[in-house]
Each structure stands twice: as structure tokens, then as C-alpha cells.
Amino acid sequence: MNFRLLYILLGFTTVFIISDINLANAGTPALCTITQITDTESGDNDRPWISDDGTRIVFRSSSNITGGNGDGNREIVMFDTNTDMFTQITNTTENTFPNKVYINSTGTHVVFDMNADIAGGNADLNGEVYLYNIAGNSITQITSTTGNNNAGAEVSSDGNLVFFHSSQNLDTNNADGSFEIFRYNVGTMTFSQLTDGANGSDSPSINSDNTLIAFQSTALFDGATNDSRRKIFLLDTDGSSISLITDTNDGANEEPSINSNGTRIAFQHESNINGKNPDGNFEISLFDTDTDAFTHITNGTGEDSFEPSIDNSGNFVAFYSRLNITGNNADGNRELHLFNAEEDSIIQITDTNGGSNRSPSINGDGSKIAFRSSSHLNGTNPDENREIYLAMCGDDDGSGDDGGPIVIVPTLSQWGMIFAVLIIGLFAVISLRRKESN
């Protein structure tokens, strides 16, 4: 037997297999399993928000999911992933338009704004902030004002503190009617104005212990210039400081999302931070408050990226983009992506040819992402209605050993598999021939 020839064949086969291996974090959507949560034929379902453990998802809907929304109003609905049950939180008859709906990290309270008389204290149908206690199945009206200017609310893990933006004079310090960040204490029923600027501040994002708030503003805090461009700021809720995060004048910086301990802030921007965005597209970046350094998650031309959502660790950021980041979005559709800061990698979660995938909300450990899609995902949405979906990107097998949502898995093509079988056969032949020669 010519063993030299066998060894040469073995070497070539091994080289081919190694060169054929694909790493799963290089762009394949196969890492995540996508489940359709809503399945409706009319109405819209959008703006989902997920609890830290991923068991509860709230969203706004004009569909008749539970049988309690025959008039097709926009209502607040909650889905429990453990029981597969929907709960319709609101039941209104007015032409309502809730903006943001938010569930706290522990999944016990839901806060939202709505122009409806839900609790009997909003006869003029202003846009007011409401708090829903899930255990008590009760809704409390937080604000009672004239003027449709209370929105963007988030609630603490214990349900006692509500943060939002408003142009109202809620604690006598906002006579100029500018948008400011407020805090409401449920126990004492008192408001505290946390910002005070001539220009507007809005879109608060709170960390886990409610000590830090990332927000966007055109106000002149911490040396910012008055150029009517939104900038990202970090507020210490004890009133000690407001820090300017994005010191730019050439484009907007918006939609901040802060992690659990407040050390990382993801946001979207059209500004040219560090000279990385000269064409002025909307990009996603990550700011580290410990190092004062920016990580540019996206950096493309011609298309935009929006709506970052950061997990508790600050390592994972979900967003949607029309960029062809991984090579799987040549048609420029709005697709969902997940960034892993530790691996400096991005995976494309959805891969569709029509509709859009947007409004991602990531859970605490980054393994689950709720989002809205009007695409024919999984072949289950042929009418391309706006539906709520859940992407599960970790083990999530009940073992408790998730290990984070991104696992690098070597995969082979069809030819790679054929040659893998061949190499095993060659090993077998060599072994048999050696035994015969002995």
C-alpha cells in the first residue's frame, strides 16, 4: 500500500475542510430562533418592550387579540411567554394614540402614555402618563395636565418611581413650558423636575438602580452649544451632575439606551463622531462612561441604522438597519441585527425580502429580543400585517447554562461534509492497511 499517497490525499482533504468552515458569528441568522407572538388579520401590533427575564412582553395594538377590542382602538396588550396568554390592559373608546409602552425589569409594572380617560381623571383627553400594576390589575393616572405633552415614561424595578418627559409645570419649576425630565414618586405622590433648560429634554432611559438617566436634549447643559441639534447627556438623579456625552454640532444624536450599571450607552446618530460618519447617515454607536470611548457599531454609506436596545451587561445591542453589514442584506431591507461588543461581531437575525423588521427590545441577558415585523417571517405572515415576534438567541433550553446569546459554531457546506466523510474513510483505510502490514 502506498501510504505516502494516502497521506498526501489526507493533507489536501484536511486543508479543504478547514478552509470551508464558516463561523456562525460571521453573519448567519441561524443562531436565533424566531417565534411569532401575534397573528392578526387587521390592525397593527407594534412598539414591544420585554421584561428582563423575557417572560412578559407589552406592546400597543389596534387588533382584536383577546376579543375585547372590537372598535379597533390602539390599546395596551401584554403577552406572557410562560402561559402563552394575552392580557388587554386598556379598553378605550376614544381615538387613542399611545406612544411608548414600557414594562419594568422585574415584569411587575407597566407604564405608558395615552390620550384617553382610563382612570376617570382625564376628561379633556390629554396625553397623560399611566401606571399599571400587574399583580393588582389596577391602573393609576400619574399626570393630570392640560396640553398633550407627557410621554416617554419608564418605571423602576419596584414600581415606585416613574421617569418621563413633560412640558408641564408639574413642580412649579417649569414656567417656560420646555420639555424636561421628571420623576414621580408613587409612595409620596410627588413630582421632581430633574432637568431645567431653555430647550427641550426628552427620551429618558434609566439604569437598574434609578441613579443614572441617559437622555437627549438641545439644552445648554455641560458646555453644549445651542445649535438645535440633539445631544446625548447623562444625568445623576441626585442632582449632582449632568454630563455631555456627544459633543457634536453636525447632526442629531438620539434614542439613548443605557445598561444596568450605567457604564454603557447605545444611541443612534447622524453626527460625525470621531470622524467615522462623514456622510451623515444614521449610525449606531456605544459610549463607555468608564473610558469615555466610543465604539462605532455601524459605519456604512447610503443606508441608515436605528433604534438601539442594550442589555444589562452593555455587551449586546439590538438594532435594525438597511445596511448590508454581514453580506445577507443585499436588497437593503430593514433587518434586525445583534452586536456583541466582547467579540466585536454582528449577526443579522432576520432575512426578509419585503416589509420591515424594527422596534427591537432586548431582555436582561441579551438572549431574547422582542420586535415588530411586517414581513413574511417563518412563512407565517402572508398578509404582511404588523406582528410581534420574539427572537431567542441563547441556549434557552431550561438548563440554566445560556452562556450568552452568541455562540461561535463551526459549520460546513455540502462539499465540506462530503470531504469530511472522505477523510474519515481515509483514516480507516490507513489503520486497516497498517494492521495488515504488521
Task: Write up what this structure looks like.
The protein has one domain (3-280, 365-437): Neuraminidase (6 Propeller), CATH 2.120.10. The strands form eight sheets. It has a four-stranded antiparallel β-sheet with strand order 2-29-28-27, with no helix packed on it. It has a four-stranded antiparallel β-sheet with strand order 3-4-5-6, with no helix packed on it. The chain is globular and about 75 Å long. Helices cover 10% and strands 35% of the residues. The chain is built from two helices and 30 strands. Strand 19 (253-258) and strand 20 (264-269) form a beta hairpin. Residues 15-30 and 396-416 have low confidence and may be disordered. Helix 1 (3-20) packs antiparallel against helix 2. The protein is mainly beta.
Name the strands of the widest sheet in spatial order: 2-29-28-27
* Annotated CATH topology: Neuraminidase
Note the total helix count.
2
Architecture, CATH level 2? 6 Propeller
The CATH class turns out to be: Mainly Beta
Question: So what's the overall shape?
Answer: globular
- Mind telling me the CATH superfamily name? TolB, C-terminal domain
Average residue-wise pLDDT: 88
Unreliable spans are 15-30, 396-416
Features:
four-stranded antiparallel sheet; about 10% helix; Neuraminidase; single chain; about 450 residues; mainly beta
Short description:
The chain is mostly beta strands and 438 residues long.
Per-chain topology:
Elements: H1 3-20, E1 22-23, E2 33-36, E3 45-50, E4 56-61, E5 75-80, E6 85-88, E7 101-103, E8 109-114, E9 128-133, E10 138-141, E11 150-155, E12 161-166, E13 180-185, E14 190-193, E15 201-206, E16 212-217, E17 231-236, E18 242-244, E19 253-258, E20 264-269, E21 283-288, E22 293-296, E23 305-310, E24 316-321, E25 335-340, E26 345-348, E27 357-362, E28 368-373, E29 387-392, E30 410-411, H2 414-437
Antiparallel strand pairs: 1-30, 2-29, 3-4, 4-5, 5-6, 7-8, 8-9, 9-10, 11-12, 12-13, 13-14, 15-16, 16-17, 17-18, 19-20, 20-21, 21-22, 23-24, 24-25, 25-26, 27-28, 28-29
